[in-house]
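hey so u asked for the seq, here:
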Amino acid sequence: MAKTQANSDILADAKSNKTAPKGTTELKSEKKKKKVKPHRDCKWYVLYAQSNYENKVCEAIQQRVEATGMEKFVPEIFVPVQKKIVVKNGKQTVKNERIFPGYVLIKMKLDEDTWTIISNTEGVRGFVKTDKYPRPLPEKEVKAIMQFMEVETPAYQSSFNVGEAVKINDGPFADFIGSISEIDDIKGKIKVMISFLGREAPVDLEFSQIEKL
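ran it, C-alpha cells below
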C-alpha cells in the first residue's frame, strides 16, 4: 500500500512541474527548492563566449551559481536560438540555430562576487562593455529577443544553390534531373528547370522533394 501511495505522489509531482520558456536556462538545483526571488538590482548583460561553447558556458555558470548559493543574484542565463528547418539530401530536420553566435545573455546583480564567478568560468571571454564597464541590456531588447525565439513558424535553411544540378525524388516528376533556378528560403519552396517534352519547363517543389547529385 505504501509503495502504491509513493508512486501516486511521484506522478502527481511530475504533472505539477512546469517548464521554463524555450531557449532559457532557469537556475535550479537537483533538490526541489522554493523559487528564489531575483535581487532588485539584477540586470541583463551580454557575455562573450568561446565559439560553439555557448551552451557549455551556460551550464558551467549555472553549476557554479548553485554551488555558491547565488541564485538570487544570477537568476537567468540563456543562449538566444531560433528553430530552423534544415533540408539536406532530401530530408528535413529541425535544429536550434544561434541568433548571435558567440554571445550569452545573463541576468545578474553585478558586483565583486558575481564578477568573480562569471569571469573565472571556462569559456567566458568577458562582458560586452562600454568603455571599462559592462553595459546593461535594456529589458525591452531582451523581451524582443525572447519573442523572436518563440516564433512558431520555423525558417527554412537549404543547402542548395541556384544553378545547381539536382534530382527530383518525389512527386510526378520523380527521377527527373534538373537545375535550380529559384530558391525561396522563407516558404521552403524551390523552382527546378527540367527537360520535358523537348523543352525546358519550371517545376515548383518542396526542399524535401529534391536531392543533390
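The radius of gyration is 24 Å. Residues 195 and 201 are 6 Å apart (CA to CA).
lmk if thats what u needed
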